[in-house]
Write a structure and sequence with these properties.
Keywords: Signal. The protein is mainly beta. The chain has five helices and 18 strands. It binds 2-acetamido-2-deoxy-beta-D-glucopyranose (4 copies).
Length: 336
Amino acid sequence: MAPKSLLVALFFVVRALAKPVLWDGRAPFNFTSVNLDASADPYLSVVKGSNKASHYTQLLGNTSNSTPLWSPDRSLPQPIGPGGPVQITPSQAPHLELIEQVIAVSIDNSSVFVPGGNTANSQYGFRRTELLAQRNSDWHNLLPDTQTGITVFHFSIKLDPAKPLNYNHEYQIVFIEPSDGSHVFGIQLGSPFTNPTGTLPVANAHDLKVLDHAKKILYTAAFTADVWHNLAVQVDWSKKTLAVLYSKDGAELQAVTKALPNSSAASGSTGQGEFHFGVLKLPLVNPRDTNDHKNDVVHYGTQEGTTEGLLYSGIFIESTKDGVSIGNGRSIPLIV
Ligand SMILES: *[C@@H]1O[C@H](CO)[C@@H](O)[C@H](O)[C@H]1NC(C)=O
Ligand SMILES: *[C@@H]1O[C@H](CO)[C@@H](O)[C@H](O)[C@H]1NC(C)=O
Ligand SMILES: *[C@@H]1O[C@H](CO)[C@@H](O)[C@H](O)[C@H]1NC(C)=O
Ligand SMILES: CC(=O)N[C@H]1CO[C@H](CO)[C@@H](O)[C@@H]1O
């Protein structure tokens, strides 16, 4: 090994240890559609329609730029080896390694999830494709270290220009769901479902909205095209608070809220849940349904059956032992 690459390798070992990542959902380049279809770690891929997981979710390999927050920006000249010129400086070093591929998640009219394979439970109201964080093939294994104390959930989201959304609908795209079906926090897009249907789309339909457990909006960001929207949510599982960080593309994350109370969330294991990301599209009211059915968004309502999608990268859960990572190998103290 040449001294220079040895130096790079050592630097990365040190950097990796300095920032404990508890679960890494940044898809490595050796993660393929075969792994996805097998529901292999780090993703449980069963929340989808009747086709195999790789019908709805694609790993984009080297054809697409993941968020430049944690990987180099391929659209810029690369300082990267092997063989090429490598100038090692602390500020460049975090950008020396491409660590992940983009994950493209989509829905179509076949995206009817049938929990437990029992057709009586078919979720005809929703169209959904989600990946869930898991360890050793079970999401419960993540709870003891990722959902106690204070942890940070990182994710970056981008529009997929080839698969536009319909902003008349509500989309739930990232959330932690305890068994009562509530969300510790959630990211919402589009027009929230109402019965009766109001004027669509609502004024802020194109904003990414960070919701707390009581569905109060903590932060919004215009979901503009062609940029990665980097979000992180710091969850204090004991004090029941949430704090939000945001940035675009390679800009360092910035705290955009303080630690806000989220006291309606349950305590202890009742408040812990599955960490989902993907596309969950709610229906619109079907005027022909009975009023009970009109409110049953899981099973009833109308859907256009269109193919729609989102791009994801930069997904991981980190310990806050050493603060909160903000990019460029830097971190900030806990948000209070
Ligand atoms: C990818 O490579 C890493 C490092 O060698 C290995 O630990 C992991 O199991 C591989 N993943 C797959 C899906 O092959
Ligand atoms: C994509 O890029 C990664 C990182 O540079 C590399 O390890 C991988 O071999 C590349 N894959 C292909 C198919 O070229
Ligand atoms: C979409 O799927 C639903 C439920 O399976 C079906 O009733 C409907 O006809 C389909 N719509 C289109 C446009 O294919
Ligand atoms: C930010 C905030 O206060 N969020 C909610 C957390 O839970 C409490 C109790 O239900 C709500 O009142 C808050 O709106």
